[in-house]
Design goal:
Elements: E1 2-6, H1 10-22, E2 26-30, H2 33-40, E3 43-44, E4 47-48, E5 52-56, H3 64-73, E6 80-84, H4 89-98, E7 102-105, H5 110-128, E8 132-135, E9 138-141, E10 146-149, E11 152-154, H6 158-169, E12 175-176, H7 177-184, H8 194-207, E13 216-219, E14 223-226
Parallel strand pairs: 1-2, 1-5, 5-6, 6-7
Antiparallel strand pairs: 3-4, 8-9, 9-10, 10-11, 12-14, 13-14
The structure holds calcium ion.
Length: 231
């Protein structure tokens, strides 16, 4: 877990960094708002570099609110914990409107900060990738490997499950047969996409036969799309 602390007061910053490092986290420390915003927007392997931001409100350069605004504007959705000396209601409301996730009013006990950090990290982790995919009344639970339509269990083979997962992850997009073949069967073939057709036909029989609306659509000459028709 990687955390960025933006705190200008050296004693507090160093103390937090040391404490969180000892708790097993990787911690970077920025001393002003501009550095904080710059670092917070870093990406690693296509994902935000930090799992959590801890922002002081009163900072040189940009203040904590402005850092948060910049971070959210850049499309970064990691949880943010605010440290504020001012525990006024107006501040909290402002922070929540800007997308802060939690507050801690200074002075605070480190143990309380650690508890909040752990809880935010757990929450953040869950939201990165949902384990439940849904469209209309169709649900696919990736953890229990179960598929339900209108609350009824659908038995799928491993390939059918993978195929349905792919379609659900790309709801509303047309997926070419060759792409499906490479993703689900790990094969690259242009000529014989019959395998895909057969699998889609079987999947459709299980998912759509006897149910409304029909979710798996054939897009002639292009591929397949899973979508709930607009009502
Ligand atoms: Ca400060």
């Amino acid at each position: 877990m990687k955390i960025l602390i933006v705190e200008d007061e050296p004693k507090t910053g160093d103390y937090l960094k040391q404490g969180l490092t000892e708790a097993g986290m990787v911690v970077d420390l920025a001393r002003d708002g501009w550095d904080g915003l710059h670092l917070a927007c870093n990406m690693e392997a296509g994902k935000p570099a930090y799992d959590l931001l801890i922002l002081d409100v009163m900072l040189p350069g940009l203040d904590g609110w402005q850092v948060l605004e910049g971070v959210r504007r850049a499309g970064m959705s990691m949880p943010v914990l605010f440290l504020t000396a001012r525990d006024q209601v107006a501040d909290r409301v402002r922070g929540l409107e800007l997308g802060a996730d939690d507050y801690l009013v200074k002075p605070f006990a480190f143990i309380e900060l650690l508890a909040r950090v752990r809880s935010l990290l757990r929450r953040g982790k869950g939201s990165i990738e949902s384990t439940l995919l849904k469209v209309a009344d169709l649900e696919l639970d990736l953890l229990s490997r179960r598929a339900l339509r209108a609350g009824k269990r659908i038995d799928l083979t491993a390939k059918e499950f993978a195929l349905l997962e792919l379609l659900l992850r790309h709801q509303g997009e047309v997926l070419p047969r060759t792409l499906i073949a490479s993703q689900v069967w790990d094969m690259n073939f242009d000529s014989d996409t019959n395998v895909v057709e057969v699998a889609v036909r079987r999947l459709r029989a299980k998912v759509d036969d006897g149910f409304e609306p029909k979710l798996i659509q054939t897009v002639r000459g292009m591929g397949y799309r899973l979508e709930a028709p607009a009502t």
